[in-house]
Specification:
Residues 2-152 form the YqeB PH domain. The chain crosses the membrane at residues 12-35, 55-76. By secondary structure, the chain is of the alpha+beta class. 46% of the residues lie in helices and 15% in strands. A four-stranded antiparallel beta sheet has the order 1-2-3-4. It starts with a strand and ends in a 22-residue tail after the last helix.
Length: 227
């Protein structure tokens, strides 16, 4: 069983962009005229579409809307969790990363802050994590529970253990602080794959650091520093 971006959302997204393309095709002449009067300019593609017969413009922009919707859905699917649940393992893919986890490797799974699907090993170290925007978390919970995986629920069980990281306060070892700073920048710049890699590096190095819980606003517990 594989759980990913809800099909209803995929269909709604493609339908919406296609409809917007059709409407734009019907109104493109008036829109271009208004832009020329108001801003003294208009986008080149719109000017080209405005020179076409209305029916042709509507058809062209409808197809453009359809293609745009498909691309948008593909990008959305790429970024969020795609979870495959089997009797002997779980596989989590997101953002170009894929993690295969054996049943006996998984210590617990839960939804962290922001609905992030999180897997920890039996020593509390991070195995994998991915966002679930547009993914049915109820379906995730049901699939893991039905397969008898250690599902902890839709709230982070370690929320009370988090410590707010403040740069310069000395809460974290220098290497951890540097990784947290890099991750904060990656998240601010919307570089999700880089941020995810840094989180995994923090988890992998946790055992060698004296700090056991560090966060940079998002959180860090059991190696999930600065989610």
């Amino acid at each position: 069983m594989t759980i990913g971006l809800r099909r209803g959302l995929q269909l709604a997204t493609v339908t919406t962009t296609t409809a917007l393309g059709a409407v734009l095709g019907l109104l493109v002449r008036g829109l271009v005229a208004w832009l020329e009067r108001t801003l003294d300019s208009s986008p080149g593609p719109l000017r080209i579409a405005a020179q076409l017969p209305v029916g042709v413009a509507a058809g062209v922009l409808t197809v453009a809307g359809l293609i745009g919707g498909i691309i948008l859905v593909a990008a959305w699917q790429h970024e969020v969790a795609a979870l495959t649940v089997a009797d002997d393992h779980v596989e989590l893919a997101a953002g170009g990363h894929r993690r295969w986890m054996a049943r006996d490797e998984i210590g617990e799974a839960f939804l962290g802050r922001g609905g992030e699907l999180t897997f920890l090993d039996r020593r509390g170290r991070l195995l994998a994590a991915a966002g679930t925007d547009g993914v049915s978390t109820a379906a995730i919970a049901r699939a893991l529970t039905d397969a008898a995986y250690p599902w902890r629920g839709d709230a982070d069980p370690y929320e009370a253990d988090y410590v707010q990281f403040v740069q310069g306060r000395g809460d974290a070892p220098p290497e951890a602080a540097e990784l947290l700073r890099e991750r904060a920048v990656a998240r601010a710049e919307k570089r999700a794959p880089t941020a995810r890699d840094l989180r995994l590096r923090l988890s992998a190095r946790r055992a060698s650091w004296s700090a056991t819980a560090v966060t940079s606003r998002s959180s860090a517990r059991r190696g999930t520093m600065d989610r």
